[in-house]
Design a protein that fits this description.
alpha+beta; 28% helix
Length: 260
């Protein structure tokens, strides 16, 4: 049950001290692919065509189009005019407009895409559906801290262990994506085995003794078969969770304009 996610039919204004988190289900846009494809740049369309599987191609197209719509709404310009480029480590970014930056991040798994955007510093988001065929202890041994791995190993119930593994994994991915280095950052260099689920401080340092950067990590409610996490550089932001209404969408929207 996604009790915190609010369905909307109008794009809300992105407030200065707010992070908007958008949940998108591509299957709801099965008949609207051409509309979303038209919002992409030629480079993005070429990128989409390189995906060998139709579902991956569709998810990229819808995710990037919705990102453009949301950025256009936040910045106040047409979504087709948004310039999205790769940062130093490949993380997508857009240049400041009017002296103000918009920070954003995108994650996807199965039929869920998440887009987070805000104005108060770097952020990262991740979503994972539970894959019970994965050898989670092998993955943990390469990517988790000793404490995290020991906690997993001491969890007798296999289902509880799987859910705990994905909670840790999404927290780590969200932090790594907020950091900007993604998997270039050693996931075993910081610990996320905390019990708290909202705005827990996690410090990332390049080497022991350095102050590094502090991120605030929150778990996301995504139902019974998936989990997610959001990492923020600022702890002073209100997080608003919205469901993007894909069905029937036909044109870019501006602030206060119905999407359908």
């Amino acid at each position: 049950m996604l009790s915190n996610w609010i369905p909307v039919d109008t794009l809300p204004v992105l407030d200065d001290n707010e992070v908007q988190l958008w949940r998108i289900q591509p299957s709801a846009a099965a008949n609207s692919g051409e509309h979303y494809n038209a919002l992409l740049s030629p480079v993005e369309r070429a990128h989409a065509e390189r995906y060998r599987h139709a579902q991956a191609r569709e998810h990229f197209t819808i995710g990037r189009a919705c990102l453009r719509i949301l950025l256009g709404n936040a910045i106040g310009i047409d979504s087709n005019s948004i310039n999205i480029s790769a940062g130093p480590h490949g993380k997508p970014e857009t240049p400041p407009v009017g002296g103000q930056s918009i920070f954003f991040n995108v994650a996807h798994s199965n039929d869920t895409i998440l887009i987070a955007l805000g104005r108060q510093g770097a952020l990262g988001v991740d979503v994972e559906y539970f894959d019970r065929k994965t050898d989670i202890m092998e993955v943990a041994s390469c990517n988790f801290t000793e404490e995290e791995t020991n906690t997993l190993a001491s969890t007798a119930d296999q289902e509880v262990r799987i859910r705990l593994f994905y909670r840790y994994w999404t927290r780590k991915e969200a932090v790594a994506k907020a950091d900007g280095r993604g998997l270039l950052l050693s996931l075993s260099s910081f610990d996320v085995s905390h019990e708290s689920t909202r705005l827990h401080p996690v410090r990332v340092s390049d080497s022991p003794g350095e102050n590094g950067t502090l991120y605030y990590v929150s778990d996301l409610d995504l139902g019974t078969e998936a989990t997610g996490a959001l990492a923020l550089e600022s702890s002073n932001c209100r997080v608003a969770e919205f469901i993007f209404p894909l069905e029937g969408y036909s044109r870019p929207a501006t602030v206060g304009t119905p999407l359908v």
